Every structure is written in C-alpha cells, then in structure tokens.
UniProtKB/TrEMBL annotation:
It holds the Pfam family MMR_HSR1. Keywords: Cytoplasm, GTP-binding, Hydrolase, Magnesium, Metal-binding, Nucleotide-binding. The gene is hflX. InterPro entries: G_HFLX_dom, GTP-bd, GTP-bd_M, GTPase_HflX, GTPase_HflX_N, GTPase_HflX_N_sf, P-loop_NTPase. GO terms for cellular component: cytoplasm. Residues 378-561 form the Hflx-type G domain. It comes from Desulfobulbus propionicus (strain ATCC 33891 / DSM 2032 / VKM B-1956 / 1pr3). This is GTPase HflX.
Length: 561
C-alpha cells in the first residue's frame, strides 16, 4: 500500500485525497514515469507550489508519494525496502522542479548514490504541465571522474528507451565488475574512514592501527579514506561530498561496512545510516566485538557483556516505529511505558546484575591473591601495548603454550605462571590484556577486576615492540594509562622486544639502555639479562620493604615504651 509522506502540513483534505489518488496509479515498467502520471504529478505540484516526488518500484508500483518544499525534497528512510537482487535498490525516484531551478543538483546525486536508487529523474514544468524528464543513473566505472551519467532530457510522452532494460543492463554491469557471490560470501568487506582535525601523520598512524584491528576481527579492508577538516561535521562527521564519494566507492568495490576510526555519537550513526545501506560501526564497537570473540573465561565474558551494554544504552533510538507503541496492562491508568523505556530498563537491570557477579568474581580473585601474599612470593606483571609480544615472552620464560598470535588483543584473560630465577628465586609472572590508544572508557571500567592484578605486582615489565615505527607513541599511551590507573608508583622495567628486527647499531643502543633491556621474546638466549635485571629490582624492592617494616616495628616499640 503506497503512502504519502513529507511536508503535508497545511494541506487541504482535497489535496491530500489527490495525493492519495496519485499514489494508487501504476507506471509501465518500460517508462520512467507514465504520461498521465506525469500530468497528475505536475498538476498537484503546481497547485501546492511544492516539489512532489514518487518512489516507483521496478514493477511500476508507486511505493511512496513525497511532498517537499518549494526548493527541495527529502526522501524518507528506506529501511523496509531491500536491494533487488544486485547492487541497486529496485526503486527509482521522479520528482518535480519548480521555478527554473537546476534540473539535477548535488542533493539529487547524493540521494541517488547513498540510497542506491535505480534511477533519479527530475521533471521540469511549464505552465503547470510536464516539460522534460532529466534522468541520471549510477555507473560501475568512473567516467571523467564521475560515478554517474546523465541521459538526454525527454518528454514523458516521447520516451523511446526502455527503463527496465536500462536498469537490468546496469545490474549486469555491476555484477560483472564485482560478482554478487564474492560480496555476499559471509565476510565483512569494509571501507575504513578517519576524520581528523589534527595532523595527517597522526591520522595515518591511527589508520594503520585500525587496519590491524580490522584484520584481528576478520574484516577485509577494501579502502582507506582520511579527511582532514577544520571542524568535525556535527551530523555526518565528514563532509556530505566525501560521504557521497565513499558510498560510490562502496558500490564499485562491493563493500558492506563503513568503519570509522573515531567514536560516533548516536545521532551521527543515524544520520549516516539514513543515507546509505551500509552498516556503520566505529572504532569502539570494533574493539568490543574483538573482545567479545576472544573472551574465554566467565569473568572475561561478563566484563565484555557489561561494556557492550553500556556502549549500546545511549544508542537506543526510536527509529523503529514499534518502539513508539505504548504498552500497559488491562485497566492500567496512563499510557504505560514505551517499548524504548522497557528496553532501557532491562539493560540497566542487566548491567546491575553483571556488576554484582563481577564483584563476586573479584572477591574470589582477591582471596587468591591473599593466599599468594601469605606465601611471600614476588609477583611480576607484564604490561604493554597490544600485540607487543607479552604472551610470547611468558611462553618462552615459563615454557608454556598460552595462545599467542600476531593479532591485536589475541589475549584477554589474565594468565599466571611460576618462574624460577637463576639465583634460586621463585616468582609468579602474570600476563594481562594489552593497551591501545583511545581504549573505550567503559571497557577499561569493565576490566577493573582483571587490572587489579597489576596493583599486587612487585614489578611491572613494560614490553615494547621496537620494530613498530610508532613504538615511542605506544610507550606514551601505556605510561599514560598506567598513570590513570594509579600504577605509576610500582617499579617498572622496560623490555625492548623484537630487537632482532632492528639494524645492528640500533640493537646495540637498546641492549645497553639504562632504562630497559633489549630482547627477542622468541629467542630464549636473549632473556638472561632481563632475568638478572628483574631479580636485582625485586631484591631492592624487598630490601626497602624490610627496612620499612623494621622502622615501623621500632616506632611501635618506642611508642609503647
């Protein structure tokens, strides 16, 4: 059943009935719009002095009648209409143009591209009658730097080319360029987007990290787009022209996902998804998805679920009409709760329950740490940027087989092993989740119970991947997070990992560094200097602790005396 939507304020009942009758007309599939339908469209548009548009299905059925303003028309969200077997949506748009305005403007191209319409055609008017149709459609390959082409204007009564044959030929060309089966083979194919007000170098470093995050999540990266702006666009985050360019790129490449390097607000996500069929996620959601797929322990799964719910809560919207329906029991007074309010309340209840469960798990972990303290066994914790080699180092030191992959966040759940030092000292060494720049605050909060392991450490080994060109920035990120967690008071030894990938002079410089030790986590022969330095620090810490204890006892005895 066709609908009438848009700016219907102030219309008379007769005008609304005329619009409804227009919606009931049918167009021959061979025509962009029929002669009689064009006359009715021109008449109602002239009477209202507003642009009026039609969304027409390939079958010729009119799906929607849209009422605009004098100089523009807004196509509503088309979430209920899917693409028609190929890459185009299966709908064409025909709308009137008043007052000698440009036949095809930038907004028409944006709607054509972002909504993947079969065709966009504007109908110019003369003395209240149809004048010319100006059709434009997308093409699978750029011509003269454009992803669309305009057809010759034609009068609605003199259409020679078959509309349906043109659309089917376009579908065939799109499929030949990028077969549908390749696009829909079950793997996300993403265009990565970064919008920044900072330097391009910083944006490129962050984009390189986003590429690795996407690879860790099993996402195929098709293209990377970086846009520098003076100000972030409050609605689309990037410029409208760039959004059109990205959507057209996705059409050519067969992408089904837009992945933003910046965290998007709920309104920005809605604005972008309203203008494109592509799924849209940001860096935070990608990290949460990676964590959700990697968590193995009960505690880890609880932490991730809590972080996901906190991320989701502000992004619940009333976009779905079902959410606006009111519910209430028989005889209940008042309108009751909306579906949206019910969903929010359930999420808040679930977050509360998860908090209680995590507190119980944290208490169990605290008791285990108490038993460890009673045995007076020193604790070493491995910290560092994600994928710096912490798990590999733990495996080599303790001859373990903990999962260690060349992926970001390959290890989430904390792992502890016993380690015996050369001079007959036994310690417990613990691997923890890696850090990353712009780590979501909710995720950091959810992992508090896991990160509490770090507070019990006598020594932190800060593992650094010196083969990464941005390792100094990564060190700054980790040190900043340690300071934020108030862990910067614990002795910390820098471990420069992967020195085997450096030039000989750089290896020698790091190997003799006063602030750290150079190693290769894969080569056990490079680890003795690390063990010696760590043992020296632990003995120094133990000596200071013994002196502090003795001084405390002496002060107590003097006070009693």
């Amino acid at each position: 059943m066709a609908t009438v939507t848009g700016n219907t304020n102030g219309l008379k009942p007769k005008q609304l009935r005329d619009l409804e009758r227009l919606a009931q007309k049918k167009v021959a599939p061979d025509e962009i719009v029929g002669r009689e339908t064009a006359r009715a469209l021109a008449a109602i548009s002239t009477e209202l002095n507003r642009r009026v548009g039609l969304l027409i299905h390939r079958s010729g059925q009119i799906e929607t009648v849209i009422v605009g303003d004098y100089d523009r028309i807004t196509i509503p969200a088309l979430a209920h209409v899917g693409a028609s077997g190929g890459r185009l949506r299966g709908l064409r748009c025909v709308h009137t143009v008043l007052g000698g305005a440009a036949a095809i403007n930038e907004e028409d191209i944006m709607d054509l591209a972002c909504l993947r319409l079969d065709l966009m055609a504007t109908l110019t008017l003369r003395d209240g009658l149809p004048d010319l149709l100006h059709p434009v459609h997308l093409i699978p390959r750029q011509v003269d730097g454009r992803d669309w082409t305009t057809l010759s204007p034609v009068h609605p009564a003199n259409q020679q080319q078959s509309c349906i044959e043109l659309i089917e030929a376009l579908e065939d060309e799109f499929v030949r360029e990028r077969p549908v089966r390749e696009v829909d083979r079950g793997k996300d194919r993403a265009i990565l987007v970064s919008v920044t007000t900072g330097s391009r170098g910083e944006a490129e470093d962050s984009m390189a990290e986003l590429v690795e995050l996407a690879r860790s999540a099993g996402v195929e990266v098709l293209a990377e787009v970086i846009q520098r702006r003076k100000h972030i666009h409050p609605r689309f985050i990037l410029g409208r022209g760039k959004l059109v360019e990205i959507v057209l790129m996705s059409l050519r490449l067969g992408a089904n996902l837009l992945l933003f390097d910046q965290e998007l607000s709920p309104s920005q996500i809605r604005s972008v998804t309203d203008h494109t069929d592509l799924r849209v996620i940001d860096r935070t959601q990608l990290i949460l998805d990676i964590f959700a797929s990697r968590a193995r322990s009960r505690e880890g799964k609880l932490q991730i679920e809590m972080a996901q719910l906190k991320y989701m809560l502000p992004k619940l919207t009333t976009r779905d009409d079902a959410l606006s329906r009111l519910t209430g029991g028989i005889g209940a007074r008042g309108p009751g709760e909306t579906r949206l309010e019910i969903d929010k309340r359930r999420i808040n209840d679930r977050i509360t329950r998860l908090g209680k469960e995590l507190k119980a798990v944290g208490d169990q972990r605290f008791h285990r740490r108490n038993r460890r303290r009673k045995r007076d066994v020193p604790v070493i914790s491995l910290v560092g940027y994600t994928n710096a080699g912490k798990s590999t180092l733990l495996n080599t030191l303790t001859k373990s087989e903990i999962q260690a992959e060349d992926l970001l966040f390959a290890t989430l759940d904390p792992t502890s092993r016993r380690l015996r030092f050369p001079e007959d000292m036994e310690v417990i060494i613990t691997d923890t989740v890696g850090f990353i720049r712009n780590l979501p605050a909710d995720l950091l909060k959810a992992f508090e119970s896991t990160l509490e392991e770090l507070f019990e450490a006598d020594l932190l080994l800060h593992v650094i991947d010196v083969s990464n060109p941005a390792w100094r920035q990564q060190v700054a990120v980790v040190e900043g997070l340690l300071a934020e967690l108030e862990l910067d008071g614990i002795p910390c030894l820098k471990v420069f990992n992967k020195i085997d990938r450096l030039a000989p002079e750089d290896q020698a410089e790091l190997a003799d560094s006063a602030e750290g030790v150079g190693i290769s986590a894969l080569d056990a022969h490079t680890l003795p200097p690390l063990l010696i330095r760590a043992q020296e620090i632990l003995r120094t810490v133990a000596g200071k602790a013994a002196v502090s204890t003795a001084n405390g006892k002496r002060r107590e005895e003097e006070g009693e005396g």
